[in-house]
Amino acid sequence: MSDDIQNNHIKPDTSSALVPNDTPTSTVFKSNSHWAVIGIFLLLLLASIAYARSFLVPVALGVLLALVFSPVRRFLERRKLPPAVSALIIVGGLITLMGLGISSLADPVQSWIKEAPTIGFKLEQKLRGANESAKAIIDAGKQIDQLASVENEAEQVQKVSAREPGVLVKLATSVPEILAQVVFTLVLLFFLLASGDMFYEKLVHIMPTFKDKRNAIRISYDIERKLSNYLFTITLINAALGIAIGVSMWLLGMPNPILFGVLAFAFNFVPYLGAIVGVAIAALVGLLTFDHTGAALLPALAYLTLTIIEGQLATPYFVGRRLEMNPVVIFLSVALWAWLWSIVGMLVAVPLLVAVRTFCEHIPRLQAFGTFLSARGSENVTSENADTET
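The structure assignment produced for this chain is given below.
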């Protein structure tokens, strides 16, 4: 009997000793599976965003334009104009500006397209010294090609015959799709502006408690206010930069200075990469226009100087610390959205970062992530804003 009692004591002790050893293993397994599910969800989300770009691109542009012009709509509503009339005025003004811009830029663009076949020859004449230094390498490559067999030559003929269409052909075939997306964006913008504050009313209606209603409205209005202020301010700054670059190109004797101003206005919506592309185009056109190397590089230098002044002085002063973002995060975001949505993705990358950062400022668990997205020196501003709200 003593043996049975001893055995009864041993069994409970053994089973109780196994319990704490099994608990950490199950917890680690659940944690790993949780992060695996999040990773799979993010990959599927990116794939869906890239796959549905034809639909999501005009939707994103329509929403951003609605946020930009929401202060204008409210201003017109305070003047006793119905939301539908205000939306019609705003969309009509955009269509008029787009028509004027296209008509004014039609002649310069056509002249550049006509001169496209001769641009390569002109660049070769300008850069003849560099071509002569690389002539030995080219001759060596030709000798290697001559040693190829007849079979390789047949394959080369097949490759040449299967060459993809040129850039102009691709651009011409994509014009109907671009026009359809522009029309879709303008129609969506009209409906968003004509609906007024309907979405805010729906948001208040579906929230369960008064605290949730207040927080939802506060977050929505804060995102709208910061996005509209940011986009409206950046648009004005880019317009001033375009005018300054257009005037400088005219003073330097560059052809089509208006086109340079419009390109500078559009390129500057893309941080960093837009300025680099603009400087490269100015240098290329300068080499084609002027004979002397110094005079040819002056337009690129002027373009670079004006963009540096805008990026280091004008934008930080007018945008303010509360909307400045981490430059590394901006660069990675622009690269990611360019990979997903091409040119439009580069345009919407920074506004999306501003919206995400504003949302994180209102959620206590996400404030650390919002601080990571902000620029250096803006942490105190974010924390003070959170303390004021609490």
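Interim note for the steering committee: The chain has 16 helices and no strands. Residues 224 and 382 are 17 Å apart (CA to CA).
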